[in-house]
TrEMBL record:
Taxonomy, superkingdom: Eukaryota
Protein name, as recorded: Meteorin-like protein
Cellular compartment(s): Secreted
Gene Ontology BP term (one): positive regulation of brown fat cell differentiation
Keyword Disulfide bond: yes
Keywords: Disulfide bond, Hormone, Secreted, Signal
PANTHER family (UniProt xref): METEORIN-LIKE PROTEIN
Signal peptide: 1-20
Source organism of this protein record: Seriola lalandi dorsalis
InterPro entries: Meteorin-like
Organism lineage string: Eukaryota, Metazoa, Chordata, Craniata, Vertebrata
Length: 293
């Protein structure tokens, strides 16, 4: 339902001149409300085509619509399976963030909540981001800024990312097929042990891990311990309801990286994974090759 206070902006989207802004790299956008001040009733269109990036709106005035799309041609079915996750910087202020779809606005992130820096996710099919500046007498210190990522809602370990499916995180073991795919397609994959677990925030804990093998990592979330250490170390986030047990048991650790942090996905005992991998190797069903020695 269209809210009365939103009618002005929706009318502006439909009837007034909209200024389209394309980011030079199509991943991030930086703009200023000062250039928008002479036509406050216009709604500025921002188009970003990237899997991740950021937005920074200095001195926000009026409103902008942020249209997010992947940087490759996608079928409608694939698009429906994509989610957008945004994470505001803790100093972000000056605007409310809504979802806009077919003229309806739904509040996603109020200004007062942005200081928490909490991740919020929604389906790409739900619409575009509508960022509305809050009228201020002094805008000199106002900056609305956040990071975004396009995240598949399906795949190995996706059920473990709590912001993607709030309240319905499941700790079920991954299937054999999911395990084999996780080693090949996850943002990180390796074998190691849990050293300890510390309580975190927003419904998750943080585990300290040491890896003796590192098959792949998308970004450097695990650091090499040097010639003497002969291992990698780092931190992995885990939903609170999915407890882990620190000790000497070795696990296959796979997962995803979101906003620079590692999140655990499929994590069977390494000896069980080796049996599965050996069987798949014999019948030629492994999706990729790794060095398990």
């Amino acid at each position: 339902m269209l809210r009365p206070w939103a009618a002005h902006w929706i009318t502006a989207v439909l009837l007034c001149r909209a200024v389209a802004q394309y980011s030079s790299d199509q991943c991030s956008w930086r703009g200023s409300g000062l250039s928008h001040e002479s036509h406050r009733r216009d709604v500025e269109q921002v188009y970003l085509r990237c899997s991740q990036g950021s937005l920074e709106w200095l001195y926000p005035i009026g409103a902008i619509i942020v249209n997010l799309r992947p940087n490759t041609e996608s079928s409608s079915g694939h698009m429906a399976g994509l989610h957008v996750c945004i994470k505001p910087y803790t100093y972000s202020q000056g605007s409310h963030v809504y979802l806009e779809h077919a003229g309806d606005l739904r509040l996603l992130l109020a200004e007062r909540d942005q200081a928490h820096g909490t991740v919020h996710c929604f389906s790409l099919a739900e619409g575009a981001l509508f960022v509305e500046a809050i009228p201020q007498t002094d805008i000199s210190r106002r900056i609305t800024t956040f990071q975004y990522e396009l995240v598949p809602s399906q795949g190995p370990g996706a059920h473990m990312y709590p912001f993607l499916h709030p309240g319905v995180v499941t700790c079920k073991p991954c299937s054999d097929e999911e395990l084999l795919m996780a080693v090949c397609t996850s943002d990180f994959a390796g074998s190691g042990i849990f050293r300890g677990v510390a309580s975190g925030t927003n419904g998750h804990s943080t585990a300290v891990v040491t890896l003796s093998r590192l098959f792949r990592q998308k970004s450097r979330v695990f650091a090499w311990g040097g010639a003497r250490g002969r291992s990698w170390s780092g931190h992995v986030n885990i939903p609170l309801q999915c407890g882990v047990h620190p000790g000497e048991d070795e696990y296959l650790l796979t997962g995803s990286v979101h906003f620079g942090e590692a999140w655990l996905g499929c994590a069977p005992r390494y000896k069980d994974f080796l049996k599965l991998y050996t069987r798949a190797q014999k019948v030629g069903t492994n999706p990729c090759q790794i060095d398990t020695d």
